[in-house]
Structures are given as C-alpha cells and as structure tokens.
Amino acid sequence: MKIKDVYFLKSCKNIADFPDYQYPEVAFLGRSNVGKSSLINMLMNKKNLVKTGSKPGVTRTINFFILNQAISIADLPGYGYANVPLKLKKTFLPLIRRYIMNRINLKLAFFLIDIRRIPGSIELELLSLLSGNKIPVAITLTKCDKVSRNRLAQYIQNISKQLGIDSDRLFITSAKTLSGKKELLGLIAEYAGGTVRNGGF
Ligand code: GDP
C-alpha cells in the first residue's frame, strides 16, 4: 500500500467527540513508551506526524488521522506508565475500553508490545475485550532491533506463551530498521478495505 497523504484530524477526550464518518479505522494501542508514535511515523513515512519520546503517560486523548482520504487511524493513549499518578492513570483505561466497545468504524487493532516485556494484566484485559468485541488484532512486537538475532526466538516464545497465541501470529517490527513495515501496511490495506475495493492504492 502506498502512503499518498496523511494528516492529523483531531484529538478527542470523550467518546462524544469521536469523528463521525464512514472511514474504516485502524487503531494503535500499547503501553506508554512501547514505541507507538515511532511505529506510526515509520508506517506513514513521516518523521513527526506523531510526537515521539514525549513524557510518557501524559497524552490522554485519542488522536485521529486520515490516510489517503480513505482510512482513519486512531492513536490511543499509552497506558500503564509506572510514574503517572494513579488518578491520571485511571482516566486512560475507561476511554480505551469505551473506544473498543463502541467504535463501529474499528476494523483492526495493532496491539503493541515491547519485545523485551512480558505482557501484564492490563494487556490481557484489553486483548480479551478486543476479542470479545470481535475486533481483529495484530499483536505487534516493537523495538525488535534491541534484541540480538539469536535471542529473538526466545523473546517471541515468552510472549506467545504468556498470551496463549501461536508465535506465527506475532508481527516483528522495528521503527529503526523498518522491519515489519510491509506486513503492517498490508494488513491496513486488507482490513481497512478501501484500498482493495477502490483499487486506488
Ligand atoms: P510511545 O510512547 O509508545 O509513543 O513511544 P515512542 O515512539 O515515543 O518511543 C519511546 C522511545 O523508544 C523513544 O526513545 C524511541 O526513540 C524509542 N524507540 C521507539 N521505537 C523504537 C525501535 O523500533 N527501536 C529502537 N531502538 N528504539 C525505539
């Protein structure tokens, strides 16, 4: 899939503010600092579409982008950052849950996990919410360049075991080496439909 143009549309704090259009939507979610901004920028061929390395856990909004005038991209707030005050931390999850349960545009969720981290209870809860709402999920392992080649399989194995998901179903990515870019863009084209049906990409 070719990225022709992509732009930021709006930031939303409440479900009532979500853009009301028909575009199929692809969402990105993951813990703070997982590399979500870097991955979105890498996929969209942009350096600063999404601000990277910002203070973890501070973004409390869902940010919407429009890709190729045909696909909506939702960047969900990073959850689970240890140093965020509990009160602030608690505001993220309800918004994410409401998004998952209500967003009818949502066709595919990229669920990001740092390859070096074993997913915890928040991840398991959100994954089960996604599957309960019949949302296709692409488990996307980030920062894979940080792990040596000969240890990669072990890291993948640990995560797949914790999630109870076959390791073949995990996507291996790196914003640094562009690893996984083609596969993820292929998924966006496949699930967000417009691409294939319109034949315009
Ligand atoms: P976010 O909080 O999930 O949006 O994470 P960011 O994209 O801001 O990345 C957090 C930190 O990890 C930054 O210092 C990035 O430079 C770094 N980072 C993100 N992706 C990668 C990657 O694929 N490889 C490496 N080596 N570092 C990465």
Q: Outline of this structure?
A:
This protein is an alpha/beta fold and 201 residues long.
Run of helices and strands: EEHEEHEHEHEHH
Instruction: Give the CATH class.
Output: Alpha Beta
| The CATH H-level homologous superfamily | P-loop containing nucleotide triphosphate hydrolases
> In DSSP terms, counting alpha (H) and pi (I) runs of 4 or more, how many helices?
6
User: Which ligands, by name, code or SMILES, are bound?
Assistant: guanosine-5'-diphosphate
Spatially, the strands of the biggest sheet line up as: 1-3-4-2-5-6-7
What name does the CATH topology carry? Rossmann fold
Q: Nearest-angstrom radius of gyration?
A: 16 Å
3D architecture notes:
- The protein is α/β, with parallel strands linked by helices and 201 residues long.
- The chain has one domain: P-loop containing nucleotide triphosphate hydrolases (Rossmann fold, 3-Layer(aba) Sandwich).
- It contains 6 helices and 7 strands, in the order ββαββαβαβαβαα.
- Strand 6, helix 4 and strand 7 form a beta-alpha-beta unit.
- The termini are close together.
- Guanosine-5'-diphosphate binds next to helix 1.
- Guanosine-5'-diphosphate (GDP) binds next to helix 1.
